[in-house]
Amino acid sequence: MSIAAINEQLLRAIGVGVAVVRASDFGFVFHNQPFAEWFGTPGPHAALTDAIEGLSPEDLGPLCEEGLRYSAELKIKRKRRTLVFAINISLASHLDEALLVVECQNITRIRELESMIDSYSAMVERNTRELEREKERVERLLLNLMPRQVYEEFKTFGVVTPQLYPQVSVVMLDFVNFTDFASRTDPTVTLGELNDIFTAFDRIVEQFGCERIKTIGDAYLAVSGMPEPVPEHATAVAHCATRFLRYLDRRNQSHQHKWQARIGLGTGSAVGSVVGIQKYVYDVFGPAVNLASRLQVFANPMKIVAPAEMKEALSEEFRVTDIGPEDIKGIGEVHLVNVGGELSTPQPASRF
After folding, report:
1. How far is residue 198's CA from residue 244's CA, in Å, rounded to a whole number?
2. pLDDT of the chain along its 352 residues, tens only?
3. SS3 of 41, please?
4. H-helix or E-strand containing 336?
5. Residues 6 or more apart from 228 whose CB is under 8 A from it?
6. Cα distance between residue 231 and residue 140, in whole Å
7. Cα 220 to Cα 195: distance, rounded to the nearest angstrom
8. What is the 3-state secondary structure (H, E, C) of 116-167?
């Protein structure tokens, strides 16, 4: 077998469609089996531009005139499926006759895989964005349940170590006759009122660098001095307390429902930690919390009561008057003071 015959057999056997046409009229000199399967068997007088859809004589003009290689991707409809072919045509000559060598490769599967990869990439990016949004929602939710420092510890280690804070101050507010109001008012109205008021309280607490820990029904609890120690923790909660009452007083002047509150302040130690496993709630408990909770009962409506041990810290910025000793349940005798209005405008504090 001659070398030419061997070459022809190789061209017929390979998976690439090969055809040789005359440059003068694009008539076929040779084509292999894959070419015939993809584009049909050329007739005796068929031209290359007739066999391959989308290929025009104008496309081959520069190739024939200047010898430039022609490369293109052509889509050909076969029944209900679109096939994609990479076509390369180069100029050659044989016995002084200019010929065009056509190489065709079916790249339909490659393009389909690329399309699938692009689709999967888009889906992964979309899911990643949704996960990021979900992560941000969870983070905002947890930051509503615990201070940021505690949240960072929880995020890093999965647990929050209970911490004893030796010097903190607590403000506890309780509304007067709330139970009676809630029993005779539409629950939606009650909830709307509390949301409105507590949202304003949250802004006040943030302004003075305190941390709202929780609300229990109509009770509102905030602390200063934890998790970061703050030297002026007593004045911080006192400023919050006076601003709470000022806000309620101004709100009562323009709203249908009138609210009055009693406020107790406490100081001392407290323990802070996340309580629960399935429902994470950051909570504080200890002597300072108990004292504030007990003292709010001794306050008259729209008044603030604090232990006398806070008097020295508060007297420079607030009008403080003695009430006298009272027997506090579970604590014993405690000298109490009434905390009045602010004597000076406080400086805003940064939030921890």
Report:
1. 10
2. 566 666 666 655 567 899 999 988 889 999 988 899 888 898 888 899 888 888 888 888 888 777 778 999 998 887 788 899 999 999 988 878 889 999 999 999 899 999 999 999 999 999 999 999 999 998 888 887 788 888 888 888 877 788 899 999 999 999 998 888 888 889 999 899 999 999 999 999 999 988 888 777 678 999 998 888 889 999 999 999 999 999 999 999 998 889 999 999 999 999 888 776 666 777 888 899 999 989 988 999 999 999 999 988 888 888 999 998 888 888 888 899 999 877 766 555 544 3
3. coil
4. strand 332-342
5. 149, 352
6. 28
7. 12
8. HHHHHHHHHHHHHHHHHHHHHHHHHHHHHHCCHHHHHHHHHHCCCCCEEEEE
- Pull the structure tokens for residue 112: 């389909």
CA atoms within 13 Å, Cβ hemisphere of 245 = 24
> For residues 102 and 30, what is the distance between their CA atoms, to the nearest angstrom?
10
Residue 196's SS3 state is helix
Q: Return the number of other C-beta atoms located less than 10 Å from residue 306's C-beta.
A: 32
Question: Rounded CA gap, 119 and 125, in Å?
Answer: 10
DSSP state of 347: P
Asked if 84 and 111 count as a contact pair (C-beta separation under 8 A), the reply is: yes
| Residues 229, 213 contacting (CB under 8 angstroms) | no
Helical (H) or strand (E) element with 170 = strand 163-175
The C-alpha atoms of residue 52 and residue 75 are separated, in whole angstroms, by 10
Amino acid symbol at 140: R
Whose CA is closest to 197, among 183, 181, 141, 297?
181
- Distance (Å, whole) CA 296 – CA 285: 16
Map tokens 């490769």 to a residue: 105
